[in-house]
Amino acid sequence: MVQSGKNKKTVTVIICLNLILFTLLVVDISIFYYKYSNSITYNKVDYQKNSQFLLDKYSGEFEALNKDKDKFQSFLDSNLIGDIYLLKTDIESNLNLLASSNHGDEKRLKRDCGEIFNHNFKKIFYSKQVLPENKINICLFEKKHDYIMGLSVSFYHTVSDSHDSEFKQWVLKNVAPYFILTGVITIFLILAALWSINRYYDLRAEYIKDKLKLKNELKEIKKQLYIDPLTNLSNKTTLMNNLKKLDKPKVIILDIDDFGVMNDYYGKDICDAILVYIAGLISDFATTNKMKAYCLGADRFALVENGEFIVEKYEDLANELIGRFKGRMTSIKVPNSSDSISIEIHTTIGFSVDEDDTLMKATTALKVAKNTGKDYVCYFKGLNKKDEYKIQIERSLMIRQAIIGDKVLPYYQPIFDRDGNITKYESLIRMINSDEILSPHKFLDIAKKIKRYTELQKKVVEKAIDELSQNLNLVLSVNLSGRDMIDGDVSLTILKLLANNDVADRLIFELVEDENLENVERIEKFIDKVKKMGVRIAIDDFGSGYSNFSYILKLKPDFIKIDGSIIKNIDSSNDSYMITRAIVYFARDLGIKTVAEYIHSADVLDICKKLGVDEFQGFYLGAPGEKVEM
Fold first, then answer.
1. What is the pLDDT of residue 424?
2. Distance between CA atoms of 302 and 325, rounded to whole angstroms?
3. Which pLDDT value is given to residue 183?
4. What is 47-157's CATH superfamily?
5. Domain 236-383, what fold?
6. The domain 388-616 is classified under which CATH number: 3.90.226.10, 3.20.20.450, 3.90.850.10, 3.30.70.100?
7. Chain CA centroid to CA 356, Å
């Protein structure tokens, strides 16, 4: 590529130089032709004879005026053809100017016909000088009795052909200056062209280099966003995207039993080695069976294929896969050591061959398999519906009572700047059930299913704005989903509350992932309205799910909150480190502040600071609480 660039540059220089030189040649030929065509004549002009005729005429006038130099001067003042001079030699043989048509301008005489002052005038003095613009100057002086009379006159100069005795002088005076000028201009143009070409190719090379670098960086970022950094398998986001392209998907989900307990017992390094080992085994199994392998999370994997297959095939595959672990001791190498340990790994499998909601159904089958202690379960209609419906009834009653009894409350988690100062709080929804404070994962999904989610979200926003109204130094961020922004009830409530309370400039909406985030047009309209009122926007959990760079460019947020799943491993995973660095650089170039979630140790905090993250949030710095402390 470098050699190709040099060749192109050389060709460009050669073409450019040829064009300049060709243009120079055309211009010079045109100048020569124009000058030559205006000066050529086939009848030779006798300049001395013409000059002698004029001189004789003035000499006759001088004789007619009785050689009176004063009268002759008056005559010259009113009758002028060329410069006429009347001179006389004194006793020291020096020429003195007596009269002239240019009022005694002796300097002009010496300039045009200076050689006469060294002439003895035993014969006529005659000289000619070729001038520019096709002119020739003639000097003719002769002795008239006691006087010397002469003239300096310019004639239109002509040449007969290139063999003319005056041709070389004509060229030097009429054409050569233009040739020199065009030559100088040509040199300037060549230098300018060479500079421009070098500059162009330098800038082009720099542009190509930057473009290639950016392309590689974006490719790497995209890879990190869609590839699990530990196992190097495609992640859940990739799986979700790929499932949309399949018309008859079949999904097998494998989960490592008691992985959390294993992690506590063996430690993170050993368990990471276990995951890498299983990922390799799953990948080989997928290749053998012409399937695609995915890593769905810390201890869960998926196998996917597309086509018409019977349930029995997947039962055989599940048995084969489980058979690779069940009752066997697996040797795992201890990281940074030559030792190995033997671990018995148990797995559970759920799979689905339905064409609709295949991943969800395979996940449901996995849950049933775990709850019933089976090695694997295939999803079928009605699977686990009874138990699910019972739980739904219990929690829907709890949600209803919480809304009526005002038991929906916010918890506030502080967000810190680089100096350790609290800049704002994130408002997190909680629910009181008897004496227990419930986290959102225990009631939000049910609330959506029973259509009580809107009431919960309105409560959250109302309480946040009420807190801002009471505490004028407080800045709060509130989570909003795509559903909230396109829901007329919630969005209208938000706009009314903002219009009636002067708190918009201290309120931040964090956009959280849901399926409605793809409805960008309606979301953009809502964001545009609240931004005009002073609200700022943050993208929550960036680096997972639907998060993508085009989404950032469309919504133009003020903050990007980097997903905790990336931050939590930043002190041990180079991939997490590289992803975080890329997001920080990307955000900084767009003037967007970054917030690191899940700060769980001093090491993680220090690394995030060194990478240039602006703000920090996590249990290491401050857990969510009922009150704010400003």
1. 96
2. 16
3. 81
4. YNR034W-A-like (3.40.1840.10)
5. Alpha-Beta Plaits (3.30.70)
6. 3.20.20.450
7. 41
Kindly report the number of other CB atoms within 10 A of residue 211's CB atom: 10
Sheet of 347-352, strands arranged across: 292-295, 300-306, 249-256, 347-352, 376-378
Range(s) for CATH 3.40.1840.10 in the chain? 47-157
Reported as half-sphere exposure (CB side, CA atoms, 13 A), residue 578 has a value of 16
Stretch(es) of the chain classified as CATH 3.30.70.270: 236-383
Q: Which two tokens stand for residue 267?
A: 């430690």
Amino acid at 579: I
pLDDT score for 61: 84
Q: What are the phi and psi torsion angles at 217 (to 5°)? A: -65, -45
Residue among 488, 459, 464, 482 at smallest CA distance from 400: 459
Specify the pLDDT at position 443: 84
CB 150 within 8 A of CB 165: no
Q: Where in the chain is the domain with CATH 3.20.20.450?
A: 388-616
Alpha-carbon gap, residue 224 to 239, rounded angstroms:
14
- Cα–Cα dist 489/20, whole Å: 72
Tokens of 519: 């409805």
- According to the model, what pLDDT value does residue 253 have? 94
Q: What is the pLDDT of residue 548?
A: 63
Rounded Cα distance, 122 and 120, in Å: 6
Q: State which residues of the chain have pLDDT below 50.
A: none
- Judged by DSSP in three states, 131 sits in strand
Q: Report pLDDT digits (tens) over 191-249.
A: 888 888 888 888 888 888 888 888 888 877 777 788 888 899 999 989 999 999 988 89
- The number of angstroms, rounded, from the C-alpha of 588 to the middle of its chain's C-alpha atoms is 13
